[in-house]
Design a protein that fits this description.
Order of helices and strands: HEEEEEEEEEHHHHHEE
Largest sheet: 5 strands, mixed
Strand order of the largest sheet: 2-9-5-4-3
Number of helices: 6
Length: 278
DNA sequence: ACCCGCACCTGTAAGC
DNA sequence: TGCTTACAGGTGCGGG
């Protein structure tokens, strides 16, 4: 989610108030819902950029909405003009934007997604987007009140890591941030979520918030493959502060124990057996 | 009703 | 070099 927020902010800077002159759909399969140029915002003026959890939406001044989901490998890239940079491989859609006053130049925005786990969803109105797609999401991880978080997380008997990753419980926590939050809160990722005590649930909420806020501030995590950047091409730097993710076998930064790697909730999980007790 | 496990894709790196 | 395998930021569905 910090990566999605970085994309949201960069798009806000680059595209707010711009007019969509033309849409080119290169791979129709990435769009769910109407695939017409109009549904993909052709002719619209970009009015706001919204986010809920990991879901990003471009909302036009006339109310049309386009949701972009990045999945594992998706990205949004803006370049000064189509002539400026050739389309990179796996570019599935392209919007030619005509800027307004402060940024009058033409801009090209592209949706790129090699693995195609992400996609585009079109809606005639913001209400339709919220009703048909965002109601399935829990409250945003940055906004959920501590007591609400505690209640929702304790509503399942699955492992606490599974609860954190479940977007219908709380929206926005992915694999990196689940591991980092659980480490900071000193909780074993396999613990039954329903059995967290109130202080433990509060602690986890605090850790999740601190980790996510810090990661947002740092533009998210750009991993070793360098794939993720925001819409302006800037990398995140939060990976410098990962304390467990990607560090299996290395020493715990708190107690020096060897960090353990396993599979929890179907995902690679790294934790410290000494610091994160059952 | 709830939860697990796997399928969906492509790219990359490691192992042989 | 080149083939094979494992694994990667996330969902979404079938079936137990």
């Amino acid at each position: 989610m910090p990566e999605v927020e970085a994309v949201r902010r960069s798009l806000e800077r680059l595209t707010l108030g711009a007019r969509v002159a033309r849409v080119t759909l290169l791979r129709a399969g990435v769009v769910r819902g109407e695939r017409t140029p109009a549904a993909l915002l052709e002719g619209a003026t970009i009015g706001s950029l919204r986010r809920r959890g990991k879901h990003l939406a471009i909302v036009a001044e006339d109310g049309r909405a386009l949701e972009i989901h990045l999945g594992m490998s998706g990205s949004v890239a803006c370049v000064a003009s189509a002539a400026g940079a050739p389309r990179e491989k796996h570019t599935h859609a392209e919007w030619t934007l005509r800027g307004s006053d402060p940024r009058p130049t033409a801009l090209v925005m592209r949706f790129v997604d090699p693995r195609r786990f992400g996609g585009l969803w079109t809606f005639p109105t913001v209400q339709a987007l919220e009703r048909e797609r965002w109601t399935a999401l829990g409250p945003d991880a940055l906004e959920v009140a501590p007591e609400v978080f505690a209640d929702r997380v304790r509503g399942t008997r699955r492992a606490i890591k599974a609860a954190l990753l479940d977007q219908s419980i709380v929206a926005g926590v992915g694999n990196i941030y689940a591991d980092e939050s659980l480490f900071e809160a000193r909780l074993d990722p396999r613990r039954a979520s329903s059995r967290l005590t109130t202080p433990e649930a509060m602690r986890l909420h605090g850790s999740m918030l601190r980790i996510l806020h810090r990661a947002v501030e740092m533009g998210g995590s750009t991993l070793a493959d360098g794939t993720y950047t925001d819409a302006a091409g800037a990398s995140g730097v939060f990976q410098q502060e990962h304390r467990v993710y990607g560090r299996a076998g290395q020493a715990c930064m708190v107690c020096s124990d060897r960090l353990r790697r396993g599979v929890v909730a179907g995902r690679t999980t790294v934790w410290c057996r000494n610091c994160q007790r059952r």
